[in-house]
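Now for one record.
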Amino acid sequence: MKHTDIYEALHEKSPIGKTVTVCGWVRTFRESSAVGFLELSDGTSFSRLQVVLDKNALSFDAECTKNGASVCVTGELVKAFKGEGNELNAKEIKLLGKCPPEYPIQKKRTTLDFLRTIPHLRLRTNTFNAVFRVRSVAAQAIHRYFHEHRYYYVHTPIITASDCEGAGEMFRVTTQPCGAKYASEAEYYKEDFFGQKAGLSVSGQLEGEVAATAFSKIYTFGPSFRAENSNTTKHLAEFWHVEPEVAFAELPDIIEIAEEMLKYVIEAVMEECADEMNFFDAFIEKGLKEKLNRVIESKFAVCDYTEAVEILKKADVKFQYPVEWGSDLQTEHERYLTETVFQKPVFVTNYPKEIKSFYMKQNPDGKTVAATDLLVPGIGEIIGCSEREADYDKLVAAMKARKMDLSAYRQYLDLRKFGSVPHSGFGLGFERFVMYVTGMENIRDVTLFPRWVDNIM
């Protein structure tokens, strides 16, 4: 039906006397003996349009005033009586869709825990409306950053035969019927759709490296899947991954790119989602805007893993998990470094090779790899980054040490045989980034339909 978006109705510069038709959902209704006030939202604006109903001059179905009902209103657009923007003096209001009293979006029930049980409706609340506006703008800004810097966007496969991380946390892809019996695993997969073992991709990195050796600078932005039996507030079984790969780039180069990109996207969100960021600052995380402005203005810290371990061991804090050289940093350690020690994002570099992936460049000390994690206050790790091992023999040795099947990585190894170059890349967990810029504390609240162990809705 022909109508005006509420965003346009709110921001119309010459509104006096103009007749418009708007459609949307009722968010609130209040009334006096003579006048009723509807707040209407159609999703095109975070702000709502106030519709004024003259009860003496206008007859309408009472269902039009119920929370959650959808309506179509024609009226005169005028300057708002209070504040900035416009409001609508209704001349006609039609009911498009009733909303019964059991509509679950009610103030007394809308905790985040409850809203996770109704993901198909929670976007209608202020919180989730704002979250997904920011998510959309952030995604656009990521694409824009890479396009402006002449990266090529590549689409890596969702179904793959190789485990990028080598951790065995892949979801299996199969067409075999339930209860199919075979004498061996090899026979089972031989009869499967691809004739070999296949799974959902945990990362597009390996294929991204292929593209980078042809185009120099590429990125992929798509879903990744990890069958990780984790029930934390920052893990999902399906998440979105931003993964650039850059030829002729060493670790310091990719660190610089990661910092520049992150600041670029944060600035875009602050500028393009001003209303949403004001909401988050007021109701989700006090001081959020100040925190993000400090991130934009500051130079990120860089700290060697060995130095970080020493800092943590000397800290006058009782950590739940002990800190020793060779162990991975836990979230409590990461947050202590970012929130107490550096008070800003920090790149921790040169991790022990045993706790990092096979593809990372081995440092001359024989103990560490040229890898870094970007840690941010409130979240912990948000980016995993490394220079890739470009030496064929060293890469093969690392894979053999992990008892990996070299035949599954033939194409990847070929890149080290035919014109190998230093190259680096990183992976940004997009949902964790959205958590960071919105102040949301649970990753399940920044993705449309979250999937985690024992839960799919």
